Amino acid sequence: MNTTEAFAGLDCTDCGATFDATEPGRCPDCGGPLDATYDYDAVDVDREALSARPHEGLWRFDALLPFPASEAVSTAEGATPLVEAPRFTDELDVGRVVVKDDGRNPTGTTLDRGFSVAMTAAAQSNAEDVTVASPGNGAQSLAAYAGRANVRHHSFVPSRSTFHNKAMTNVHGGDMRVVGGRYPDAVEEKAEDVLDGWLDLQEFTTPYRHEGVKTLAYEIAAGLDWEVPDAVVVPTGTGEFLVGVEKGFRELRSLELVDEVPRLVAAQPEGCAPIATAWERGLDAPEPWSGPDTICGELEITDPAGGELALQALAETDGAAVAVADDDALESAYSAARYEGIEMGANAGVAAAGAWKLADEGEFAPDATVVLLNTEAGGKSSDLLRSHLMGKGI
Ligand SMILES: [Zn+2]
């Protein structure tokens, strides 16, 4: 594999064993998730370099990625805007609210960042088949990147996955299995059906998905002129986004490009909140959630693969966790569209609703800068948002 100068290898987050870039999954010694490490002394970047060349998307940050941009499987993901949200700023009664609009990625989700890096690794290792189980957005993103890399792809999605996700996964080609039930049923079916030689690109199985997500932190810092926000509110399911964003900010601090890491907030739906509940109870690892019930399918992750790492990320940043009702998530996504002109999916509405709840509880200082992470385009859940509107009699 062709790796970057500063890339040092993959470390097991549980036992500390080290591996090179070719290790395809979790730690062969203990089963823990692997994480890319770097020799930060060998990273030759400054604020100017990290702010330049936005048209190259997240691969402009390749000095801090495992693979060089020349090897990237990319459709120019990343480089999404920070959009000012003046009405949210007034309503939350804080100094500034900005939306990091990652719904503008190629398939409309933050997941594209991770799949670009993970597919780059897969292509470099000459994988012939890749697979993932997903509530829906992940299958679509995998299909896009695997199709571009001309690698066969096999996704497992629950029947309740949205029409949009299933349709676009089909359009990108490949093999999609629709499994009756919910996301855990798709995970189970994948475990039974995956064939020898298929490379598993599940989050925290491949080491590279949260690695792509970390570029969000670089873009937020650069977009705010290297002023670290007071809080970043992250819709949280598997933990991939939260862990990625925390790593990115921690790296910037190691490189002395920012002074501190922001407070991270994990926002989950009340109907499936294993990470928020574990945080409230002071646990080191979430307990699997039984009887999940939320309209936010992307966040209906009962047994999050990155749960333990997500709780560590919250602890490292003096963070917070919040659980919100589905109706509040839908109302927040509706408000973003109606009053700010920002299209936000229902799953991302969980972050906005979470920020509202924390503001009501007095968690933000009056001059705080709060970043809401919009992880999903509004068009992904247009049916849900329209139904919500009709439920209000509009
Ligand atoms: Zn290990």
Automatic annotation (TrEMBL):
Pfam families xref list: PALP (PF00291)
InterPro entries, alphabetized: Cys_Synth/Cystath_Beta-Synth (IPR050214), TrpB-like_PALP (IPR001926), TrpB-like_PALP_sf (IPR036052)
Domain (Tryptophan synthase beta chain-like PALP): residue spans on this chain: 73-375
Superkingdom to which the source organism belongs: Archaea
Protein name: Threonine synthase
